[in-house]
């Protein structure tokens, strides 16, 4: 019998919802119909990436000023147990994806995580998120 290692699934994208007026939506559909974009999502992703690129310097400066981790930051049970053993507390600050392992108990999270600021997505069990609710900004 083969043993499988279970790892949390890392989502490469998050779903968002936007509201557009009929004129904007019609223009998007026209550009898709004319072959400029493969679909509505393609146009919207391209527009967002263009805006992020035009503001890249501001993002970099803000990340440095606020001491944010840029990208993916994963906290395992062992990581949090080491922080707890050292008598320290974490101030999690991430621009991107912060994930807390599924085997982290709410008690361990509360004992080791002082605050959570995530600009992007936070993946953790529902119990851990509920336990940290007052510390998530």
Automatic annotation (TrEMBL):
Cited Gene3D superfamilies: Met repressor-like (1.10.1220.10)
InterPro entries for this protein: Arc_rbn_hlx_hlx, RHH_8, Ribbon_hlx_hlx
Pfam families: RHH_8
Listed GO biological process terms: regulation of DNA-templated transcription
Protein name as catalogued: Arc/MetJ-type ribon-helix-helix transcriptional regulator
Organism: Paucimonas lemoignei (Pseudomonas lemoignei)
């Amino acid at each position: 019998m083969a043993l499988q290692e279970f790892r949390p699934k890392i989502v490469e994208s998050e779903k968002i919802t936007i509201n557009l007026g009929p004129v904007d939506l019609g223009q998007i559909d026209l550009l898709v119909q004319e072959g400029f974009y493969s679909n509505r999502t393609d146009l919207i992703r391209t527009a967002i990436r263009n805006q992020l690129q035009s503001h890249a310097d501001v993002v970099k400066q803000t990340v440095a000023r606020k001491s944010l981790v840029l990208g993916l930051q994963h906290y395992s049970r062992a990581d949090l147990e080491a922080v707890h053993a050292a008598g320290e507390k974490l101030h999690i600050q991430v621009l991107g994806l912060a994930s807390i392992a599924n085997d982290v108990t709410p008690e361990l999270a509360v004992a080791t995580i002082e605050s959570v600021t995530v600009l992007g997505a936070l993946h953790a069990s529902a119990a851990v998120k509920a336990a940290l609710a007052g510390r998530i900004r």
